[in-house]
Amino acid sequence: MLLQGCSPSKEQAASDPDQQAKLAQKDSEANPPPVSGGPDSAEVIAAPSGMAAESTGSNQPSGVKPLPEKSATNDEQADSNRLRQKRLPEDLTPQQLLQYIEGADRDLQVLNNARAPVDGVIQRRQAAMEIIGVKLQASRRVQAHQEATPEQQNSGIRGELQSLSHLTGMGDVSAAQELRELAKKHLHSDQPLVAADSRITTIGFAINDLYAGVPQAADQIVELVNGIVSRPGTDVPAILIMARARELLTDYGHLDQAILVRAKILELFGDATDPMIARIADEAAGTVKFDAVERMILDHQGGAPVKIDDWNAAVEELLSDSSDQITVGYLIGAALGFEFAGDNTLVDATFAQLNSSVPETLAQVRQQIAAAQAASQARQDVIGSEMGFADLPSAPGTSVNREELKNKVVLMPFWSVAFGANALSILPELLELKKQYPQQVTIVGMNLDTAEARLEEFYLQSRLDFPSFHSVSSSDMQQPNPVAVRFGVVNMPFMAVFDKDGKTDSLHLNSTSLTQRVDALLNQPTTAP
């Protein structure tokens, strides 16, 4: 594992596949399939065999969290990089292009099911990029084909949304930019499935904006959610993105908006006749007991006092109803919020309730609590410690000059290809601070990937212009990363700030209060020689 003490909150644990992807993308990337036909880079891609007559694309695009926006490359340059010089035959009919889209979907399913006879993370990632490139190329060509019917063109639009979503999840910044624009373009399409895919994707970007502290992001999420309609084929991804939106809104203190999203889930799916849809919706909507706890969290974030007795009573009631991983993860998330708000009294009270209420028989849940509590303690212990990292190498393709860090405030975002684009969603604020104080503030990343990760490729795709240390995670992903353990990293984005003396000053999950903290550090005298 990269991190230790990662605890999914209620809705994420129940229904958010991206949460698992963040924590274990290495597992999924370790098994990509070959591209249909499997030609060399100079060859034309052979037609996939055994395809159905029509395809609308089997993979719904999920809400994604892109890297910070930069100037997009043009389509020709982006496609050239993604497709690795592979090309489809020029004379394909719309029907044949749709067959390529469906063939790519099947190949990606083989990737996800770990059945592909391709060894090595690098080769498998390359194969995945080729598959997605085929799908993207076919999707765009069917849209532009003069003989394509409106239905076939709509299938091409959905295929393009899905392809760009895949690439974004693999860290392609330009794909994220293209995806956001494409989803925005088709948000109000008169084609229901295209509009639904675009709305789900746009909500994902709004969630990313919430992560990054963009003003009005919470209200934008609610506005987008209110436009969701129940429609066969899109209900499950719609519920999943609404569940994630509700959970993040709660975590960031927007409880009023979270309650509105919950109400929309129940309005659309509360009386669903499909048992699976009804169950997923029920898990996504949560319970009144959760809302009581959420109200206290919002009060606390708004500056209102939360009495320990009231909090203990609410937590006790919640745990008496269920002490499973979902509920425990939710409360661990609440404790994390209290911690970063500086209220260790409520942190201690929460962990005390968890330790006293969860029975010993639930060994895995208790391990979850212990790991989260250890991470919380680590975050407290690391404050004031020296930066260190004397033995850490620089990430491939970068070079950290330790001399240049002296007498500067160092902003250190932790990131990992395995966590996808969201890990660096805080980067725009860091770059702005560096631009404001070019001689006094610098950025040095901390990468937590395995030695096999394609970091140089990620740097090029993302156009990152700062160096990074590389704390190498174990290839089998079974041992926690030592730097992640030292700093108590449980999720990303995560950032450490070091003062001009090279000591750990503060930790941050987002950009809130970051500018104020940096300004304060710049006004402090340097004590180091």
UniProtKB/TrEMBL annotation:
Residues 1-12 have a biased composition (Polar residues). Residues 368-527 form the Thioredoxin domain. It holds the Pfam family Thioredoxin_8. One of its GO terms (biological process) is cytochrome complex assembly. GO terms for cellular component: cell envelope. Residues 79-90 have a biased composition (Basic and acidic residues). PANTHER family: THIOL:DISULFIDE INTERCHANGE PROTEIN DSBE (PTHR42852). This is Thioredoxin domain-containing protein. It comes from Stieleria bergensis.
